[in-house]
Specification:
Layout lengths: L1 H29 L2 H30 L6 H6 L6 H6 L5 H22 L5 H25 L23 H30 L4 H32 L10 H26 L3 H23 L13 H25 L14 H33 L7 H18 L13 H25 L6 H24 L6 H9 L3 H25 L2 E7 L4 E4 L2 E12 L3 E12 L2 E13 L4 E5 L1 E5 L2 E10 L5 E8 L3 H18 L2 H5 L18
Antiparallel strand pairs: 1-9, 2-3, 3-4, 4-5, 5-6, 7-8, 8-9
Helix pairs in contact: 1-2, 1-6, 2-5, 2-6, 5-6, 5-7, 6-7, 6-11, 7-8, 7-9, 7-10, 8-9, 8-18, 9-10, 9-12, 10-11, 12-13, 14-15, 15-17, 17-18
Length: about 650
């Protein structure tokens, strides 16, 4: 009965979405306050109904109701409870339910938190959100219904895909979708503003918190997915340029550009048209990522196999929303004022350079991702665009951006002094170069170019410190006075510095893990020893173990340094009994910011086994830097100016900023 209630709630949510899609827009046209108010009420009702439906599906997983086809295909009675919960979104139908739940959750947040947004704009924004919700409700109900029943009900389930039975995959999709779907609010604001013809600094201030929240969660989702692939798949890598990885990375790049562009628009009333375009592009890339994962055009560890009808349905959604938004933009953009002017050497100019590089980088990743698919569709020829292409093109594009990042905060708005900024940064540049040399020396040498990569990472970190140093006026004022000045800085200023510092930390991790990483593939028998990263690993043999729904062979290794035992590590091969599917569980030892990584391969004749051993120096800086960037995002989001938003405009009517097209 609970399952049927969940299904019926989804149908009611569809009816509510139709109402919110139509009546508030008519209310805006007629200036009917009651009809516009339906957008707020309807969005809250829609969230309640979808949440009820999602809870019903979750209940079916928790109690192992195998009469529900979706539960039978993706669960097992012996599966740990946490994976019963994560199994809800560990499949196509459930993941789309999570996508929809987060979408209506953001709509409800706009309805509740947008009290100071003009009623007409708010009604249009929530209506656009309802259009998106309507499309995905139809998609779920018509092609991906998670509430289908089986009669008779099977006695046992087929179990969840073993590689998804991991804590990282329990939290990775929700974080990723909070980022993906969060950009829908920016998209809705852009479309609503184009419908109204109002694009101004207040609009940017309303959009910026939603952009920042989505960007922060997407950063968390990508980082968690990267770390999961690193420790769970047993291949020792943290990024593979997999098309589905790229599908999440492209909205992050575009969202980063949107975040900086909205700042310029809010502060200087500049880049208006460009900011609106970025808002549309960012969510369009999120929608494209949904298509790539759900349509079946890709085969990936991240993707769910689907039938062609689902791919065609999502493609139609893409065409309607992306095509419609860009058509509306092309129609309305020529009638909008371009915004304020500024000198090329200014903070605005630095942010424009940031935008230019990020959008070109996004286009590069998009080309490398879609080109093989387009070529195969047109000619039938299959090619692979791999890491060498992306590393070369993307790396070269990021180099000038990373060099320019510390300059931006030190340049004045409208007209800046580049020479003055260079004079203030030269000491920090020298420290960055020395730090790069020191890190290179500590790693016992390596590629000479690694020095410059490490120095650029340190440059980003020290540049963030320089921003706070000069804001506090250290060296010119007493220390306590400078500290008091820092304490009085807006939280958004602190958040920016923290995020830029985290970017530098991540760069150091990427360079170190790429330049100083060592790999050893050896055949080992019990009692044999191998060397890696200055440590000796002795293979002590296998032990059998039994888990709740799997059996495993665990290989034990003793790790010693200088003749003294410092740790031990277990690496195993698991076999999940229901699916008869093997997985590799890597053994990982952490030494400071570096890791020793041990993965078991295939058994060999004579009793030996292939063992892969990696030494990965400073690799934790990659995810540590992402964590610092996330902290920076949340610190900025806690700034009262972002939480309160733009002031209410009830007291004074807004002057139109649209000019008639000539």
């Amino acid at each position: 009965m609970i399952v049927e209630i969940g299904h019926f709630a989804l149908v009611l949510a569809l009816a509510t979405a139709i109402i919110v899609s139509v009546l508030p827009v008519i209310g805006v046209y007629r200036r009917d306050a009651a009809m516009m108010a339906l957008a707020t009420t309807g969005s809250l009702v829609m969230f309640g109904l979808v949440a009820l439906s999602f809870a019903a599906l979750t209940w079916a997983y928790v109690v192992s109701d195998f009469s529900v086809k979706n539960v039978w295909e993706n669960s097992h009675s012996l599966m740990p409870l946490i994976y019963k919960y994560s199994g809800v979104w560990g499949n196509h139908e459930g993941s789309m339910m999570l996508w929809l739940l987060i979408l209506v959750f953001f709509s409800a947040l706009v309805a509740v938190c947008g009290r100071n947004i003009p009623e007409t704009l708010k009604a249009n924004v929530l209506a656009v959100q309802a259009w998106i919700s309507l499309a995905f409700l139809l998609f779920i109900l018509l092609t991906s219904n998670p509430f289908l029943r089986l009669d008779p009900a099977p006695a046992e389930g087929r179990d969840l895909n073993p590689i998804l039975q991991d804590f990282g995959l329990a939290i990775h999709p929700p974080l990723l979708y909070l980022g993906y779907v969060g950009f829908s609010v920016c998209f809705s604001f852009a479309v609503a503003a184009l419908m109204e013809g109002r694009i101004d600094a207040a609009w940017a201030r309303w959009v910026r918190p939603w952009t920042l929240a989505a960007w922060t969660f997407l950063t968390a989702g990508i980082a968690m997915g990267s770390y999961w692939a690193y420790y769970e798949l047993g291949w020792g890598g943290w990024w593979f340029w997999d098309p589905v990885e790229n599908a999440s990375f492209m909205p992050w790049l575009a969202g980063t550009a949107l975040l900086h562009s909205a700042l310029v628009m809010e502060k200087r009333e500049a880049l208006k048209i460009w900011t609106v375009l970025l808002a549309i592009m960012t969510f369009s890339l999120s929608m494209l990522g949904t298509f790539l994962v759900r349509s079946g055009v890709l085969t990936s560890v991240h993707a769910f196999a689907t039938d062609p009808s689902r791919g065609i349905f999502i493609l139609c959604i893409l065409a309607i929303f992306i095509g419609g938004a860009f058509t509306l933009f092309a129609w309305r953009a020529p009638t909008l004022k371009a915004g304020g002017l500024f000198a090329p050497i200014s903070r605005e100019g630095a942010l424009v350079l940031n935008n230019l590089i990020l959008t070109v980088s996004t286009a590069t990743v998009l080309t490398g991702t879609l080109y093989p698919l387009v070529l195969e569709t047109l000619t039938g020829e299959k090619i692979s665009v791999g890491a060498p292409f992306f590393n070369m093109t993307f790396g070269l594009l990021m180099l000038p951006l990373l060099i320019a990042v510390p300059f931006g905060p030190l340049l004045a708005w409208k007209r800046g002094d580049l020479l003055g900024a260079m004079q203030r940064l030269w000491m920090f540049a020298g420290l960055a170069l020395l730090a790069g040399l020191l890190l290179w020396y500590v790693q016992n040498g390596g590629p000479v170019l690694a020095i410059f990569g490490l120095a650029i990472g340190c440059w980003g970190m020290f540049g963030a410190v320089a921003d706070l140093w000069y804001r506090g006026n250290f060296g010119k004022l007493p220390v306590m006075t400078s500290l008091h000045r820092l304490k009085g800085l807006p939280r958004s200023a602190w958040g920016t510095a923290i995020a830029h510092f985290g970017l530098g930390v991540t760069v150091i991790g990427i360079v170190a893990a790429s330049a100083f990483n060592t790999e050893h593939v050896v055949e080992m028998k019990q009692g044999q020893t191998a060397q890696a990263g200055g440590y000796s690993l002795t293979f002590d043999g296998f032990r059998e173990a039994v888990g709740p729904n799997f059996t495993e062979e665990r290989g034990h290794f003793t790790v010693s340094s200088g003749g003294a035992v410092v740790a031990d590590v277990w690496s195993s091969k698991r076999l999940y009994t229901a699916r008869r599917m093997p997985t590799t569980e890597a053994g990982i030892l952490t030494f400071g910011l570096s890791q020793l990584y041990v993965s078991l391969g295939d058994p060999m004749d004579g009793g030996g086994i292939v063992v892969r051993i990696w030494w990965k120096p400073l690799i934790l800086c990659i995810w540590g830097g992402c964590l610092i960037m996330m902290i920076g995002g949340f610190v900025s989001l806690s700034d009262r100016r972002l939480r309160v938003g733009a002031p209410s405009r009830k007291a004074k009517p807004v002057k139109a900023v649209m000019e008639p097209a000539e």
